[in-house]
Specification:
The protein is an alpha+beta fold and 268 residues long. The chain has eleven helices and nine strands. The chain has two domains: 4-151, Sandwich (Jelly Rolls); 160-267, Homeodomain-like (Arc Repressor Mutant, subunit A, Orthogonal Bundle), CATH 1.10.10.60. Helices cover 53% and strands 16% of the residues. The strands form two sheets. It has a five-stranded antiparallel β-sheet. Strands 2-7-4-5 form a four-stranded antiparallel β-sheet. Helix 5 (160-179) crosses helix 7 and helix 6 packs across helix 7 (197-208). The radius of gyration is 20 Å and the shape is globular. The model has no long low-confidence stretch (mean pLDDT 87).
Length: 268
């Protein structure tokens, strides 16, 4: 069974509520526009723009034009992991930080070609290696996009203090995305960043207007909801996965922040 999807992203697939995703995707918009919030950053999509989504992203579609109907290549986290094996960590992180590709030349010469090639394999019968084909194209795209960004850097007019806040906030979000299962408290992330809890609070509040604890709790609940909806793991297994002391602790935490029990949520 293929782990990839290719086609138009219809309105029913664009959940208007904030949600976490467990897949990666490249979205290519040919006309119209939209606004999407990803991990507290807001991105404006216009005609001939491309945006990259990564597993674990927290997404909220905030506005869409009537004629906005982009194409998407969607792939599993396993395929993304395989495609990233030979890509240096710095490449991957740069792409996450600069995920909106608005370079007309790159879109026309690379992205359009990639979408046409992948469309061929998805719309022609008897091809059984589409996952592998997508994996190889992803690797080529990520490396090419990185190389293009290095040759055409965006102007950065921020002062050093603003840059430092951005760097620390991005580091906090990176740690949260990778370690949310074992880090439920602010002290955990402050320690991992070698800064004080108070300083982390100042950084996060200046960027988002809310506390780091609230961000941690909201992100953790979204990931718990994703696990409850997309896996068949028992509550005991999920409580172990997410580093809760036992199933009762998970239930109390979930009920406090989601308003219902995990069992009730799973049956919705």
């Amino acid at each position: 069974m293929n782990e990839t999807f290719f086609g138009f992203l219809d309105r029913q697939m664009m959940d208007s509520d904030i949600h976490a995703i467990n897949y990666g995707a490249i979205l290519y918009n040919k006309k119209g526009g939209a606004t999407v919030r990803i991990n507290f950053d807001v991105w404006q999509l216009r005609a001939d723009s491309v945006i990259i989504f990564f597993p674990g992203d927290v997404v909220k579609w905030e506005q869409m034009d009537d004629d906005f109907q982009p194409q998407v290549i969607r792939y599993s986290s396993e395929i993304l992991r395989s495609a990233s094996l030979n890509i240096e960590h710095a490449v991957y992180e740069l792409l996450r930080a600069d995920r909106l590709c608005g370079y007309k030349e790159l879109v026309q010469m690379v992205v359009e070609s990639m979408f046409r090639i992948i469309e061929f394999y998805f719309t022609t019968e008897h091809y059984s290696l589409t996952d592998r084909i997508v994996q190889l194209h992803l690797q080529a795209f990520f490396l090419g996009y990185y190389d293009y960004l290095q040759a055409h850097p965006r102007a950065d007019n921020r002062d050093k203090s603003t840059q430092r806040v951005e760097e620390l906030f991005n580091r906090f979000m990176e740690l949260l995305e990778n370690e949310y299962q074992k880090g439920h408290e602010v002290n955990y992330y402050a320690g991992r960043m070698n800064i004080t809890r108070k300083y982390l609070g100042i950084i996060v509040h200046s960027k988002t207007g809310i506390s780091p604890k609230r961000i941690i709790d909201e992100y953790l609940i979204l990931q718990l909801k994703l696990a409850l909806r997309t896996t068949k793991r028992s509550l005991k297994q999920i409580s172990n996965d997410f580093n809760f002391s036992d199933q009762s602790a998970l239930t109390r935490y979930f009920r406090t922040h989601a308003g219902i029990s995990p069992q009730q949520y799973r049956l919705k």
